[in-house]
Design a protein that fits this description.
Layout (H helix, E strand, L loop, with lengths): L1 H29 L2 H14 L9 H21 L3 H25 L16 H20 L10 H25 L14 H4 L10 E10 L5 E5 H6 L8 E3 L4 E6 L20 H5 L5 E5 L8 H18 L2 E6 L3 H10 L5 E4 L2 H7 L5 E6 L2 E7 L6 H9 L2
Parallel strand pairs: 5-6, 6-7
Antiparallel strand pairs: 1-2, 1-3, 1-4, 5-8, 8-9
Main location: membrane
Keywords: Membrane, Transmembrane, Transmembrane helix
GO biological process, one term: methylamine metabolic process
C-alpha cells in the first residue's frame, strides 16, 4: 500500500502543478490575445519568418487555447498519452524560445504570463526547465495517469473545454481584456504613471576594471569601489586593459508609462496639454490607419460630431501614421477630430483595438472601449456628461 500511495503522489503532484500552471498561463495570455500576437510578431522578426505576421493573431488565440486544453485534459486524465506528448512538445518549444531570448538577448519579455507577471528571459527559461522536469515525469508515467471520467464523458468535457478556451480568446479580442494589466487601464492617472516620485531609487551601475601587472603578468578584475579603495590605481606596475565595463547592478524605479509623447504634425509636444485638461476628452486611438476598421471610424466620427456640437467635448484622433497619410485619411472620412501623433508601441498599449476609444478627464482614464462596444451618444451623455 505504501508503494502504491507513493507512486500515486509521484503522478498527482506534477499532474496538478503542470495542469494548473498551463491553464493559468493560457488564460492570462488569452485575456489579451492581441498583446500576445504582438509578441509573436517580435519572434517572427528574430527568426526572419515575417511572412507569418498575418497569422499572428490566429496563432495567439490557438496557442493560448491549446495550453488551457492540455492543462485541463491532464487534470481530468482524458487521452493521457496524447496529452503528455502534446505537453512535452509544447514545453520544449517554449523552452527553446525562452533560452534563445535570454542567451541572444533578443525578445526581452517573453509574454509567458502576458503583462500580468512580467518575467525576464532567464526567469522564463528557468520556469520552463522546472516545468519540463515535471512534464518528463508525467511522460514517463503517462500510461499510469488515471482518468476521472469514462472515455465518453471525458471527451465531452474536452470538447467543452476546447469551445470555452477558443471562445474566451475570441471574446477578449473583440471586446477588450476582461482584466486590464496595462498602465492605461480604467482609473489610471496617466500623468502620474509617467512621473518618477521624489526620492525614488535610481539605477545603480558598477564599473569593472580589467588590470594587468606589467612585471609579473598577473591579471585582476575589480569593481570601481575596490579599485579606489585599494589604491591600486596609484601603483605604476598595474595598468588598465581595455575600457572599463559599465554594468547595471540594481534597477531603480521605472515609471509605468515611459514612451508616450503626443505631438502635432509640426512635432510640437501636446502631451501635457491633452492629459491635464479638467474637462472630458474623447481619444480615438488608431495606431495604424491602413488597418483600422473604416466603418467603426465613421461611427466614431458621428459620435464625435454630436459630442463636440452639443457638449463642446474635445475629440482627438491619435495615430502613428505619417502626417501626410493621416491628413489624407481625415479628409477622406471628413473627420471632425483633431489629429495628433504618437509612437505605435504606446498606442497599442492604450487600447487593444484599432480603433479604440478612451474617455479621459484630468488625465484619468474614465472608461475605454473596443470599437465593437462603444456606447451610444445618449448613453455617454446620461452616464458621464449629465452628472
Amino acid at each position: 500500500m505504501k508503494n502504491k500511495s507513493s507512486n500515486g503522489a509521484l503522478i498527482w503532484i506534477p499532474r496538478l502543478l503542470v495542469g494548473l500552471l498551463f491553464i493559468f498561463s493560457g488564460l492570462i495570455k488569452a485575456n489579451d490575445p492581441l498583446g500576445f500576437s504582438y509578441k509573436l510578431v517580435e519572434y517572427f522578426e528574430v527568426f526572419h519568418i515575417t511572412f507569418l505576421n498575418s497569422l499572428a493573431l490566429t496563432m495567439a488565440i490557438v496557442l493560448c487555447a491549446l495550453e488551457m486544453i492540455l492543462g485541463f485534459a491532464l487534470l481530468i486524465g482524458v487521452r493521457a498519452v496524447k496529452v503528455t506528448w502534446g505537453l512535452l512538445l509544447l514545453i520544449i518549444f517554449f523552452g527553446f524560445l525562452t533560452f534563445y531570448s535570454a542567451f541572444f538577448k533578443v525578445v526581452q519579455t517573453c509574454g509567458c504570463f502576458g503583462d500580468a507577471i512580467p518575467l525576464t528571459p532567464w526567469q522564463s527559461f528557468s520556469k520552463d526547465m522546472v516545468l519540463l522536469a515535471l512534464v518528463l515525469i508525467l511522460f514517463v508515467k503517462r500510461k499510469e495517469i488515471s482518468p476521472l471520467f469514462s472515455a465518453k464523458a471525458g471527451d465531452k468535457w474536452l470538447i467543452a473545454a476546447t469551445m470555452v478556451s477558443l471562445g474566451f480568446g475570441i471574446y477578449t479580442y473583440n471586446f477588450l481584456p476582461v482584466v486590464d494589466f496595462l498602465p492605461y487601464k480604467i482609473g489610471a492617472n496617466l500623468p502620474a504613471e509617467m512621473t518618477t516620485p521624489p526620492g525614488a531609487p535610481r539605477d545603480e551601475f558598477e564599473l569593472t576594471y580589467h588590470l594587468k601587472n606589467k612585471k609579473t603578468g598577473e591579471t585582476k578584475v575589480m569593481n570601481d569601489k575596490d579599485y579606489l579603495k585599494t589604491n591600486i590605481w596609484k601603483d605604476a606596475n598595474w595598468e588598465v586593459v581595455g575600457d572599463p565595463e559599465n554594468r547595471l547592478v540594481e534597477k531603480g524605479y521605472e515609471p509605468k508609462i515611459r514612451d508616450l509623447a503626443i505631438q502635432d504634425a509640426q512635432r510640437n509636444d501636446y502631451t501635457k496639454e491633452l492629459l491635464s485638461s479638467p474637462f472630458y476628452s474623447l481619444f480615438i486611438v488608431a495606431y495604424d490607419l491602413s488597418a483600422t476598421d473604416k466603418d467603426a471610424i465613421n461611427r466614431l466620427n458621428a459620435l464625435a460630431i454630436n459630442l463636440t456640437q452639443n457638449y463642446n467635448i474635445r475629440t482627438i484622433l491619435l495615430t502613428s501614421n505619417s502626417a501626410t497619410d493621416a491628413q489624407a485619411f481625415a479628409k477622406e472620412h471628413k473627420l471632425i477630430s483633431e489629429v495628433f501623433y504618437a509612437d505605435g508601441v504606446p498606442l497599442k498599449s492604450m487600447v487593444r483595438s484599432n480603433p479604440g476609444v478612451l474617455l479621459i478627464k484630468n488625465g484619468t482614464v474614465v472608461n475605454k472601449w473596443h470599437y465593437h462596444s462603444v456606447p451610444k451618444y445618449d448613453d455617454i451623455v446620461k452616464q458621464y456628461l449629465q452628472k
